[in-house]
Amino acid sequence: MAEATATLSPAPRTCVQAMKEYHPPLGNRDALRLDFNENTLACSPKVREVLAQISAGALTRYPERGPVEATVAAHLGLAAKQVALTNGVDEAIHVLFETFLESGDELLLPVPTYTMYEVYASATDARAVTIQAADDLAFPFERLLAAITPRTKIIAIANPNSPSGSIATRAQLLELARRASHAVLFVDEAYFHFHGETVLDLVGVLPNLVVARTFSKAYGLAGLRLGILAGPVELMRWVRRVLSPYSVNAIALACLPAALEDKAYLDRYVMEVLAARGEFEGALDAAKVRCWPSRANFILVEIGPQHAEFVRLMREAGVLVRDRSNDPGCDGRVRITIGTREQMQNAAIALHEALAALRARNERR
Ligand SMILES: Cc1ncc(COP(=O)(O)O)c(C=O)c1O
Q1: Residues 177, 209 within the same domain
Q2: Ligand 1 mean position to 95 CA, how many Å?
Q3: Residue span of the structural domain in which 127 resides
Q4: Which of 101, 108, 141, 275 could be joined to 124 by an S-S link, Cβ 3.0–4.6 Å?
Q5: Is there an atom of ligand 1 within 6 Å of 231 CB?
Q6: Which of 262, 288, 313 is the last residue of a domain?
Q7: Rounded distance between C-alpha atoms, residue 226 and residue 86, angstroms
Q8: Average predicted confidence (pLDDT) for the chain
Q9: Contact 88 CB / ligand 1 (< 6 Å)
């Protein structure tokens, strides 16, 4: 009987069978969280006021996203039809890929980059074509241009990129949109606030540009799961067919306008992170640790073969950092989120001690 059940087990799609498992280390994070590029403090107090006022009755209703979408669109200087709210940028990526990628299509991906692009691409029948950055991890613009084919359907670019912190310039993005006019140019601006440059103003101007933003990073709302996808009306109407009308929850929708309005809070947090990043770069320099120039709220550092041990020692010291050794071209590299100056001073002490412990261990060998 058991045998018959086993042979009848339904098979998932072939591409799903080939998918790799992905388990980000989200457990046991009661420490200084410099591992997921979140806001390391809190969201705006205005958001907390809204949260405190949410009634049980409000939770009995299905969420209505339309009015909040209109608010967000107005805030961004776009038309409501050009903007969709999503359950984090993750859902935006998933839905965009499901909308456009089919068998025979190619997704162009400069790597290393945000892991979920490849995860969601591998759940489609399209082929991901990766373009490896050189050792400086700079945006591989020329090689990306050269990789465009008639089969290219989406080019996905995180700007700034993770885990490198490197950027693509506006001129480079414009050129890509022009040269791949038959494809969607997807620019993920999750770390926009720390960089300050955007192509959002070109949404609707360029017929193939789609831009994402998140509330998970600078706004400090990763737990609410809120993202924005913005693109020309002609493309967004297809995206909306795939996007669940229910995926952004009522609590997130209630909080979003307050988060947008409190620009002063956002600006203060961003300024603090930028100051802390400068100081932390100085500390890395003093410790002779190689790092890559970053325009985001994190920095990639070279630790070498003892990367896993380094991450463990940092955790023991109460500082969580993220081993990126499995990312293409990132062997021995660790990504460290930038928090406040005080947090980064503590992180720098932990880093010095971890490196000293590794050195002492090597000398004993
Ligand atoms: C480039 C990039 N895009 C998107 C995300 C995820 O954003 P969200 O929390 O809105 O799903 C991340 C998170 O690390 C990221 O690095």
Answers
A1: yes
A2: 14
A3: 45-262
A4: 101
A5: no
A6: 262
A7: 6
A8: 96
A9: yes
